[in-house]
């Protein structure tokens, strides 16, 4: 295992604490721009497929310099190289972490032969199914959960402009029958391909839904399960036992939340076709090269990861809101929740010692402009400071130019409003036609004041294409690696999901028997009520 000093045991950490007290705590964005007309240029960065404006954040070049020193002291670059070389970074499970190998061009990455053998086989299958006149397939149902769901579920709508017009995609994840029931109601067995997506092929929700799908298929006249069910899994044996013999495999060195590049990406490939799927991989690979070769000072994923540490541990911001100004990215916040919070929601270091500092923030959000009409009120005038990440796309893939201009204006305006705010003097001078005539001007102005100085990052893509989306997702993966490496945690295990699974297995038979022996008072009381 690659060792390095934990962030809080470095000299840069102590220096950052001093810097925070002297300049960070009272940092004011408006003053920073007034002081430095070159701030936008010096704090904006290019990476493959995107441009990032970090200038509306609570930092300056001195902060960045110290954060880069922190990265060096924590041996970020050496850790990155070890990760990319396939060292067993997931030390609690003794596994390498090599999702980057899935998007490396043939002959260049670890396990290249295996990776490209499955990729070619999968993409050949994809082209057969996409020939809908011959395959007869009109509906693809992906049954999977967590990492076996969120990636495809996020990418397919994001790339809607590239999706096969004769195919409709459904994603069933929840063990709640309200998820699968409305999907099955609209299907015919002969027109449907089910993908059972599960790395382990043991996950309760996925196995239960797969059984429901198979029973439905047979009850509704389906005749050839072997043609209408395929599996994407590392557990080929279990898939065969289920009755599936078309299986696209992957490997234990692909983490669930990093798996959309593997066979788990089958629904994506079916949606956008082989060529575009290869472009998605190539976009991610370009970001991998950027991360692997660019000095930390200009390395965008590394800089964003460092900013996350600065905000979480020094400013103590507890969450980050993601606002994609592209409706296709509506599932990006949910995807990032798993990527970031399952990876970095940890409270012990690599040696198992409790951490004296905070790790993953809460990641949440909705597409703009919808979020503006819901929770942005709190971002502007609430008591917490929540950094916002705006994702803007220059060119739409629809013909409604006027709508797109309005969308862009909204995204830019929100970032501007968060930063500039509005003083009570400004508010007092303004007319407020909808305000109550019973209130005096000064009191009203207090309600209409915006503190401003609220930080945001803006990521700008030229267009949302397979290539730029691949780069964007890889950017987030490496950013999460960076903050996790600095925090000295294992970003690649997820023991926190185990306890609930085990307790569910204990409770399941009790729901039939009503036996509450040995349960805590609350669970026993609730169990009695749900079974009454
Ligand atoms: O919820 C835990 C988890 O293991 C995730 O990490 C994973 O993506 C998901 O369950 C699904 O697991 P599988 O692909 O093995 O069904």
CATH class of the largest domain: Alpha Beta
Q: Order of strands in the sheet with the most strands? A: 1-2-11-10-8-9
Q: What integer is the average pLDDT?
A: 97
**Looking at CATH, which topology of the largest domain would you report?**
Rossmann fold
What tags apply to this protein structure?
532 residues; alpha/beta; Rossmann fold; six-stranded mixed β-sheet; binds 6-O-phosphono-beta-D-fructofuranose
Provide structural commentary.
The chain is an alpha/beta fold and 532 residues long. The chain has 3 domains: 29-88 and 294-421 and 464-487, Rossmann fold; 99-277, Glucose-6-phosphate isomerase like protein, domain 1 (Rossmann fold), CATH 3.40.50.10490; 496-531. The chain contains 22 helices and 11 strands. The strands form 2 sheets. Strands 1-2-11-10-8-9 form a 6-stranded mixed β-sheet, sandwiched between helices. A 5-stranded parallel β-sheet has the order 4-3-5-6-7, sandwiched between helices. Helix 12 links the parallel strand 6 (229-233) and strand 7. Helix 1 packs antiparallel against helix 4 and helix 13 (266-293) packs across helix 20. The radius of gyration is 25 Å and the shape is globular. The N and C termini lie far apart (53 Å). 6-O-phosphono-beta-D-fructofuranose (F6P) binds at residues 145-148, 198-200, 203, 206, 256-257, 342, 494, 497.
